[in-house]
Structure prediction request, 197 residues.
Amino acid sequence: MIIKEAKFVSSNTEVAKCPETTLPEYAFIGRSNVGKSSLINMLTERSKLAKTSSLPGKTQLINHFIINDTWYLVDLPGYGWARVSQTSREKWSKMVKAYLRNRSNLACVFLLIDSRLEPQKTDLEFIQVLGTMGVPFVLVFTKTDKQSGQKTQANIATFKKTLLQTWEELPRLFITSAAEKKGREELLEFIAETNDQ
Ligand code: GTP
Ligand code: MG
Prediction:
């Protein structure tokens, strides 16, 4: 797929205020700092479309972007940052669950996982939430440029093994690096395949 146009549409805290659900949408979710906004910029080849930061907690709202006037990309705030109050955590959880429940046009969630880490409790819990809600999702391993391919493969193998303790089937997996533009074609191909427009 060729990205001819990528435009910012809106930032919202309330799902009710998000754009009409007339076009399919793909949402990026995952721990704070995992690289959601960077991956959106890499996919769209617009380095400043989504705001990124080396400090976790940069994205705080539900951000909609429209691509080629035919589908939405959504950048969501991250979870799992230790220095966040219980109140903020609950606010996040309420907002994201409302988002997942109410976007009837949600084609797929891209759940980003830091490829450098052992399976994280927060990620496994969030996979459980997606499964229970019946939301279609795939896993996207990020920041693979920061370590050897061997290490990435070993961590992914561990992640798969952990998932197979509770799941019969594994979701689709993508291996990416926003810094090296790795996985771009595969992700765009997947979006094109699942997008009925
Ligand atoms: P929040 O909005 O805080 O939830 O974070 P986020 O998941 O949107 O992360 P963001 O894209 O802002 O990236 C966090 C930091 O990781 C930034 O300093 C990025 O430059 C860096 N980063 C993201 N992806 C990659 C990658 O593939 N490789 C490398 N080396 N750095 C990356
Ligand atoms: Mg972000």
